[in-house]
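Q: Here's a chain of 382 amino acids. Please give me its 3D structure as tokens.
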Amino acid sequence: MFIPTGILKQDFSQVTICIFTRNRPDLLKQLLKIWSRVNVNVLVLDGSNEDKKLGKTNSDELSNTARITWVEILSMRERMFCAANYLDTELALFLADDDMLPYQSVLKAKKKLRIAKGVDCLYSSPQEFNSRFLYRKSSHGESKLSYSTLQQDSLGRVNEWLHCPIDRHFFGFFRAVKLKKSFLLATQDWPLNDLAWVTLLGPNFELSSLVTCKTLYFKEYDYLKRKIEDPKIFSRQKRLSYPATHYEDPDTWKLILNSIGVLESWYIQLLSSSIEDVEDVHLVSSRVMRMICERGERFLDSYREKEQQIHRTVFFKPSMCTREQVFLSHASRVAFRVWDFLRHTITVRRVSWALINIFSRYYPIARAARADRRDLYSDNSN
């Protein structure tokens, strides 16, 4: 890969890039090839299974310019907790293994953050791309993300976010001290299992960042997010377990909705670290729990609708085994296609034969009229 000489001479030594990855070594290697050419600190937080780990031994093709640190822990929450111990530089950000970030974006954000006093995080609307690296506009929409949260108090920042609860700090460029504090707040003393934590990672990390950071919208920070319908990544290289399917698990959402009291106590503890008024803390936590309940109920409603559609379209008895269900569903599809083909073919054949009969009935008259016209023209010429 060609990199301009001017980029290689730039100083990235005060930037730490935290890369969270799981069971996608090809994408991780592609990302490390990009960032191993400059003097940046790279923290690889790998939760892959043993047969899917890239590992230090398989990364010999990478350049030695970057300082790469490997942390191999299966749990996503434990990886984020451990990442806080490695953030000893001035600036930091974190990437998913399927996202991209140009060098110029990091340089512009570093320059802006050093100039903007009182700002702890920069973010921009993420741009989507697919396997052909075609840029697209953000799926969230520019208008929903293009505002800053620079209020002095944490209560004002959280209330402003609750009016439009979109996850923005995932695509942020932080002061490392603030990102470290956000990691610790989002992971400490979690009362439920890891699947529930990953399901609520968006609002948890967003709240942790809002009570910690004052955020500025910076349009020139081009964060590139891979399009989720990209077939080369999301169909052929599926991750073997969570977090690939955590947002599609109804049991996890049922656990969350049945643990409202425990979760509200955890959110009260998180918000109390920055908001002093107890009444405001309880009010905000109740609004957060209302938002989470609405998300869970919407998901379960859509899940039930999908299940009903499946039961309506596939005709089988509930007591049958799985193989019989699959056989009957395929047999019904094949029978319908054969019947539709025969119906269409018979209809076309009937119409064609009718047209042939009509044409053959009037064909002698048309031939005689054509012959008379030819004789008329020949007489006029003479």
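Q: Can you summarize the key feature?
A: The two ends are 83 Å apart (CA to CA).
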